[in-house]
Amino acid sequence: MRYSLPYKTKQFFFVLIKLSIVVGAFYFIYNKLANNEELEFSVFVDFISKNDVFSLKTVLFLLFLSICNWFFEILKWQTLINPIKKIRFKNSFEQSLGALTASLFTPNRIGEYGAKAIYFKPIYRKKVMIINLLGNILQMSCTVLLGVFGLWFFISTYNPEINYYKFAKFLTIVLIAFALLGFGLTKSKFTVKGFSLEKIKAFIIGYPKNTLILGFVFSIIRYAIFSFQFYFLLSLFQVDMPYINAMIVITSMYLIASVIPSIFIFDVVIKGSVAVYLFSFMHTNELTILSIITIMWLLNFVLPSVFGSYYVLNFNVPKTTVEA
């Protein structure tokens, strides 16, 4: 005999889950700012105040860059999802920011997959998760493509001490692990919520290539915006560095920070450590770099997640979801 919870009880638990997500996200933000071992919040505020680099004009410009960054992320999601379900920009805005808030404290932002999928009817959800993966792969492709060139120029220019033997051993282990994983998946009946590997492969092969190209273009534009935002902050803190030299370090930083295994909770710490090391070759003050990393995080993750919390709290699972 199956027992079904009363409707009001289900609604109560649903509201409780939404509140837990928002409270969890805000606690994560608070904890990250208050208990950051690399940069104490009081030191950060004091450093910003003493430098006095933020006028109303510069703050508005930084906010404009963050808005542009998320505008193209939202536009990318709308573009990628349209082949299976056409949605308005407003829907894409809600899904992108709501999913950011819901996934802020999950490992590698894994919660984003389920958060975006729940906006759609059950028949679409498996495909939505695959499309979300494609979107992340496109963004990662930009990071790797530009980062490889940046890192090559960085090593050629600054000759950092690298243990090539350990690096080659690590790379070999990673390649073998991926090869074994790929072989295992092809030989097993691997499924994602009943979606077999063959069906996933067929879906990706049949996915519109023009849409993927457009998604990649939006990913490149996003990368150009937030990397320029980093450079602009360097110039605000009076770091005298040519744009090309700065981009060599910035692209290297994003590449290294992306490939280091981590959970999203420690993403800011990893970026900070990598950035401090790389910019030390440019004789840049450590506190300046850590402050810039914190500001970038506040502008591009914390601020959007605050708006996203509104959509999380107001989210409902209607009978018919996401109508165009």
UniProtKB/TrEMBL annotation:
Record's subcellular location: Cell membrane
Annotated TM spans: 12-30, 54-72, 130-155, 167-186, 207-231, 243-266, 287-313
Name of the protein: Lysylphosphatidylglycerol synthase domain-containing protein
Membrane topology of the entry: Multi-pass membrane protein
Keyword terms, alphabetized: Cell membrane, Membrane, Transmembrane, Transmembrane helix
InterPro entries: L-PG_synthase/AglD (IPR022791)
Coiled-coil regions listed: none
